[in-house]
């Protein structure tokens, strides 16, 4: 892994300091090995991107999307494709899902972690609200 640029590290630190309410609520459940005994970090550089939450051990990235993401779906798809090409599983949740359905968000994460530990490869597929991981390939893949 290449060393992130100074500006990327500065931006990541700023994002940690100025987190959204949804990020703060999810972080409460992920920090200090509270979720499945796994170590998560927040706002970490991966390549040229900064990811919201990452568990290096399970190569899992969790992204939270607010209203600003509605207009950048093409960028998010490109970004997710690059992260997947690096061996990460990417889960996306809308902020309102975290705020209103925390147990469902955590359950979805648990299911993906358990399936990946059994050898299944999580892939991004559009589903309902936001993107969900799935062991099935996208059309045109695989």
From TrEMBL:
<dbReference type="GO" id="GO:0004519">
    <property type="term" value="F:endonuclease activity"/>
</dbReference>
<feature type="domain" description="DUF559">
    <location>
        <begin position="9"/>
        <end position="112"/>
    </location>
</feature>
<protein>
    <submittedName>
        <fullName>Endonuclease domain-containing protein</fullName>
    </submittedName>
</protein>
<keyword id="KW-0378">Hydrolase</keyword>
<keyword id="KW-0255">Endonuclease</keyword>
<dbReference type="InterPro" id="IPR011335">
    <property type="entry name" value="Restrct_endonuc-II-like"/>
</dbReference>
<feature type="region of interest" description="Disordered">
    <location>
        <begin position="117"/>
        <end position="142"/>
    </location>
</feature>
<dbReference type="InterPro" id="IPR007569">
    <property type="entry name" value="DUF559"/>
</dbReference>
<dbReference type="InterPro" id="IPR047216">
    <property type="entry name" value="Endonuclease_DUF559_bact"/>
</dbReference>
<keyword id="KW-0540">Nuclease</keyword>
<dbReference type="Pfam" id="PF04480">
    <property type="entry name" value="DUF559"/>
</dbReference>
């Amino acid at each position: 892994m290449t060393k992130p640029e100074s500006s990327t590290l500065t931006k990541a630190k700023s994002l940690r300091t100025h987190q959204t309410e949804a990020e703060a609520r999810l972080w409460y459940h992920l920090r200090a090995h509270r979720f499945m005994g796994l170590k998560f970090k927040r706002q970490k550089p991966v390549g040229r991107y900064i990811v919201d939450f990452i568990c290096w051990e399970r190569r899992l990235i969790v992204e939270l999307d607010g209203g600003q993401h509605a207009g950048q779906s093409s960028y998010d798809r490109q970004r997710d494709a690059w992260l997947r090409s690096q061996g990460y599983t990417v889960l996306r949740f809308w902020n309102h899902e975290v705020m209103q359905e925390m147990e469902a968000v955590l359950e979805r994460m648990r299911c993906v972690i358990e399936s990946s530990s059994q050898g299944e490869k999580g892939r991004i597929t559009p589903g309902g609200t936001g993107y969900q991981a799935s062991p099935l390939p996208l059309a045109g893949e695989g």
